[in-house]
Design a protein that fits this description.
Elements (H helix, E strand, L loop, with lengths): L1 H7 L6 H7 L6 H13 L2 H4 L13 H16 L19 H12 L19 H13 L9
């Protein structure tokens, strides 16, 4: 719901998606229905292995240090987020997608934590981002869920 609303109120920009999906014509109930539908999809049932998160190459130890210092308080130690607070599960996202989103935060093309002034990722090098992703992808249930 949070992401659909971000597209609708243009805090997250993708004109092609907004136009082709007619997001601006959706009611609040429609948005809830779309979100419920997406959350009901069982990727493993559709195609076994499709939901498996690949292990991202990088320095897992360095990534663990950064994650535990900066990300853990919101996204939880296990990377599963806090859905009731609208904080997404990182451990269930593809690392390539997360890399692109972090770059969007750095380029001020996307807002992190609903705070346009958030500078969390501004100083991270690509190598440090890859280390974070190596650690986060190690938290995926198919990657032997690390502590």
């Amino acid at each position: 719901v949070k992401e659909i609303e971000a597209y609708m109120n243009e805090t997250r920009i993708n004109p092609r998606m907004v136009i082709t999906s007619s997001l601006h014509s959706l009611s609040e109930e429609d948005v809830d229905d779309v979100a419920a539908y997406y959350s009901s999809i069982d990727l493993e049932k559709i195609r076994p292995g499709l939901g498996a998160i690949p292990q991202w190459p990088g320095d897992i130890e360095e990534g663990s240090e950064i994650y535990n210092d900066v990300c853990k308080s919101c996204h939880r130690k296990n990377g599963m987020g806090k859905s009731r607070k609208g904080i997404p599960a990182l451990a269930l996202q593809y690392p390539r997608y997360l890399f692109r989103q972090i770059k969007m935060f750095q380029w001020d093309k996307r807002v992190h934590d609903d705070d346009p002034d958030d500078e969390t990722f501004d100083e991270y090098s690509d190598k440090q981002i890859e280390s974070i992703l190596a650690y986060v992808s190690s938290l995926a249930p198919n990657n032997n869920n690390r502590d």
